[in-house]
Amino acid sequence: MKRRMCAWTLILAMLLPVCGASEALPPSSAMKLLGGEMTDVPADETELAEEQLSAEEMFDLGVAYDFAEGEDRDMEQAIYWYERAAACGDVRAMFNLGVTYDRGDGVPVDAEQAIYWYEQAAALEYDKAMMNLALIYDQAEYVDRDMEQAIYWYEQAAMLGNVDAMFNLALTYDLADGVERDMEQALYWYEQAAALGNADAMFNLGVTYDIGDGVEMDDAQAVAWYEQAAEAGSDKAMFNLGIMYYNGEGVEADEDTAVAWLERAVEAGYEDAQEVLDSIR
Q1: d(CA 254, CA 247)
Q2: How far apart are CA 139 and CA 121, in angstroms?
Q3: CA angle 12, 68, 27 (to 5 degrees)
Q4: DSSP symbols for the chain
Q5: How does the average pLDDT of the chain come out, rounded?
Q6: How far apart are CA 103 and CA 144, in angstroms?
Q7: The CATH number of 17-124 is which of 1.10.10.60, 3.20.20.30, 3.40.50.2000, 1.25.40.10?
Q8: pLDDT tens, residue by residue, 197-244
Q9: Stretch(es) of the chain classified as CATH 1.25.40.10
Q10: How does pLDDT run across 250-265, given as a tens digit for each residue?
Q11: pLDDT tens across 14-65, in order?
């Protein structure tokens, strides 16, 4: 039996706004900066309050209006406060402005504004902004595809430890997506991402050694990577391990262990594993 899942994982999208320094501030606590309720205040009091606000407090106000529920949500106010905070150097506000224009969240999609604010945040070495710039040029939803720019920003983010950028770089070189295929680069970035716990990178390393794709086939290495990926939650790796234990590839054949991995794959949601289990039993 040689039935193995060898599909590659699609590029990840990370377009989530930042909601606070370490965790999201509840809207109520942020709104208390101007009196505790989202109500109009006299102009002179507003000016006085604004003069006393720090960049962090301005950012928190932007978050409060951005993440408020129902009718209390006010993106005009959110953008106003994000821009005030950004003008004072708050990189999170720059990033959230980029996301707002990127997704068209309460405003029309505006690629120029999204790129501008992401670049401002990237200039301050904010890796999530670099990642989103790479995705803009890679996915080409509203700009011409430019893999040179995408790879540049993936590399910048990856060098700052962004695991998703590492994985996307590896996948780009592996699939020759807009560049010449380079398995040395692909393996390097998969391994970097795997070292930071990325299950998809571990799985793709397993597949690479399993089928000898750009490297010498090595079943033992494949099993080792599949095991790491499976322990990190990859249902595809659980399935492939079941097949390898059943066939005795890279390990001694062990039907009980094969069944155990296939059962875990089913429990994790990989439906094709059930068909293989039925054929074994």
Answers
A1: 8
A2: 20
A3: 100
A4: ------PPPPPP---PPP-SSSSPPPHHHHHGGGTSS-----HHHHHHHHHH--HHHHHHHHHHHHS--GGG--HHHHHHHHHHHHHTT-HHHHHHHHHHHHHTSSS---HHHHHHHHHHHHHTT-HHHHHHHHHHHHH-SSS---HHHHHHHHHHHHHTT-HHHHHHHHHHHHTTSSS---HHHHHHHHHHHHHTT-HHHHHHHHHHHHHTSSS---HHHHHHHHHHHHHTT-HHHHHHHHHHHHHTSSS---HHHHHHHHHHHHHTT-THHHHHHHHH-
A5: 84
A6: 17
A7: 1.25.40.10
A8: 999 999 999 999 999 999 999 999 999 999 999 999 999 999 999 999
A9: 17-124, 197-281
A10: 999 999 999 999 999 9
A11: 333 333 322 222 222 222 222 233 333 334 445 546 678 999 999 999 999 9
User: What superfamily would CATH give domain 197-281?
Assistant: Tetratricopeptide repeat domain (1.25.40.10)
Buried b (16+ CB within 10 A) or exposed e, 48-61: eeeeebebbbbbbb
Alpha-carbon distance of 107 to 139, in angstroms, equals 21
**Would the pTM count as exceeding 0.85?**
no
Q: Give 251's contacts (C-beta < 8 A, 6+ positions apart).
A: 219, 220, 223, 244, 245, 257
Q: In Å, how far are 18, 36, 226 from 29, measured between CA atoms?
A: 17, 7, 45
